[in-house]
Amino acid sequence: MKGKWTGGSVRLVAVGLPLVGLAVVAAVFGFRGQGGGSGSQQEEAAWLSPGPVRFIEARLSHPAADRYRPYHAAARGSGALASGPSLQALAQLEAKGDLRGLAAAYLGRGAPELAASYLQQAEDSPEVFNDRAVLALTDGDAAEAIAQLDKALQHAPRSAQALWNRGLALRELELWTLSAQAFEAVATLGEPGWADEARTRAQEMRERLRREQQDWNDAFQAGVALVLDKGTVSTEQLRERPDLYRLYLYDAIRAAPDGQRLKELWPVAETLDAHFGGSVLRDALRWAEARDFQRRGPLAELYRSYVFQSKTVPGGTPAYLGQLRAAGELDLLLGTLVFAREVDKDLDDYARLAARTRDPWFQLAAEHERAKVALARGELLEAEQLLLSAMRLCQDGKQLYRCGALQGTLGEVYRQLWRLPEASRSTRQALVWQRRAGFWGAEIDRMLSLGQLARLQGQAGLARALLDEALARVPGDCATRHFVRANDALALLEEMRISEARAAMREALECGGVQSLSGGMTLAELARLSPDPSQDGKLLEGLEALDRAGKLSPGRHAVALHIEGRFLIEQDSSRGEELLRRSIEEANRLPKASAEAKEARALTYASLLSLAGKAGQWPQALALFAEEAGDTLPARCLLAAAVDRERTLVVAYGPDGQLHGYYDESRRQPLSADARGVVPEALVAPLRACEQVSVLARPPLHGRARLLPDDLAWRYLVLPASRTPPPALPAQRLVVKDVEAPAALELPRLGAWEPVGTGIHVLSGADATPAHVLEAMTRATEIEIHAHGLINPTLSDASLIVLSPEQGGRYALTAAEVRAHRLEGAPLVTLAACRAAHTGLQVHEPFSLPAAFIEAGARTVLAATVDIPDAEAGPFFLAVQERIRSGQTAAAALRDVRMEWLRRDPESWARSVLVFE
Fold it and tell me: Under DSSP, is residue 893 helix (H, G, I), strand (E, B) or coil?
């Protein structure tokens, strides 16, 4: 069952819902109790496609539900639902196992909650993927719909239903070009009725885009004409795009040759001041009118020519800036410093000039420039604080253009910090504000950023849609083409689709060499997996060009060194290893918060580990694991494992201290959801005599279930371990239960769970809020949380715990919040929530709720990677806890209880419960 959410993929994973009984269906929907249920195709069509019109836009896969009827948005209330199928017809479909037919009956009548359980149980197929996409669209989750439709189209590329629904999903994301293309693909199939409606819809999408582009071009030309004294702007235009014309009004004041032109600009200033409040624009006019135009006039003429015509100034920019300073032409100086990109040379000077204007527009601009310089230096936390402080001036909702630019940069800061949900939220907000400000041209950059973020968060379908839409809008722009296709290639590499990645990279390089680090990373990988000297030879030249152009921040430079080393190590191992070591050295000198430094470090250790594994140097490999972890590793009963694309390295210490190793580079498929088969039996065998096996696994292995057999006692290590023993605190057990989840999430209430024992602090009901739970966890020695788990990339890369909402609506307990907290009681933590062990996609560190609890001070965490049946969670975890309290290690306790449950049910979810210590 899915929870509802807008703007991101949300999957409810706490409990599964049983099929709805037919009696309940009859009571809710008034379906007929007898007659009309022969089960023939003709009768099926009569109730799966009732009436002369349809009231859902989407197309269902069941043939009887896909008969063409014109769409009528108001049909839902016109009585079309009054006549439903008979219970006999439903029973016949259920007896035949026609889950798609049953789902179609409910989806077609606007009852997605009843369709969901049938689609959940249906076997995967293009048709089922399509109908799950319809369910996602009904829930307002276009991103999830695209993910399902991509699966359908991968197996059935000419599926009319999937193409149609893809057009709808893309329209919901306002990706007009791709939406039109999807409907045009349906039209070419020539289906009666559907083809004509598809053509109409495609025309609507293209007209929407054409109108937006034309309106933007007209507004842009009107703004330029305002500056060049070739026209004015109507009141209607000013009210439609006040931020855009405010930008041009400043330039029109600077470029005005005399006082007469300034007088002509007064109506524009008055209209805009009325919108923004205050009188700063009229004040700017008054200030300019008071200047001596015998001196200002020639300087204004130079400004107009410099910025809008020749792009050069006689004598050069430094001389012109000196003239402006000498003349005291403050506004001209501010504009020229920005245009000439001279602001960062003296930020304090620019800030002083901005403050003298008493105009929030320029004050925001000055703070933005400070933040951009901090970002370029790699001082990410400083940049974040500067941006957050500046955005306090955005609370009136008036400075949409400036505030949108601040939000966009904040999104980039969060991306570099690998705080991807915050990055996505900031970038989306930037897009919303800049759209409202009328800056249509800003959409391309925001789409590119959101597409890259979606890829980093594992939303490959959404990423491709956003990136392809950006490229479709500016097909001739080389920089956009390279960025889009390089990201496509990297995403295809993640799926081990090597030949397709090569094709995407070939298109990325059509406009020249490597222009981005993502392109460089892709080429370095392809050079190893599928060499092509004509492409691969452009890598080093491209990295050098990026360095010369000053496009590499310190963190990005460390990544570039890694890429170069990773590429060369296959040809010249000593030179490659030297570069990789330099990458680590540079990364270690950078602030700990820099995700780019962490990424360079992690990727470089992956390369060094593979080099050692390929050479069979098991002691060297183990030393690299310890070096990266920054900790001493156990010398007995240890398994260390790494996966790097197609390469697998495993080293193990048995109980006798003998070292065993395994290396393989034959993988041609992405890792599955669990880790079965990664560790060969030859390395499992020496571990069977261990009482407990400690597992050090690098991402993406860390946190996957079934890495070792069910009958072994094993635990994931989260390193480095704390060397400071926690203070001895009195035993205090915290139990969180009976959470009142937000109604909008449509989560079923969990069954009652009564904790056993004494000395228990219970947080339940409305009191079980994130703030209260965090506070109560601080000194607890045991923590037990019974709640729903969600995977929602708009809030967290890892899974999150759904708690009772606070006054501001906050309900999620995320890994980032736990990580920033301090657990003084070194507690045993039991997360009885579905998929609580789900790990984010970070390449540089394990990021999950269990890892966060360990980093915060927990000694042990129990959590599952899959859905947990509500009725079974309590008894299972209670049995494990009792064994731990009796003195067993957590790994042994979990193993013993797991085996008891597997003897009763060999497919039990119990095998997906993990221990983290």
Answer: helix
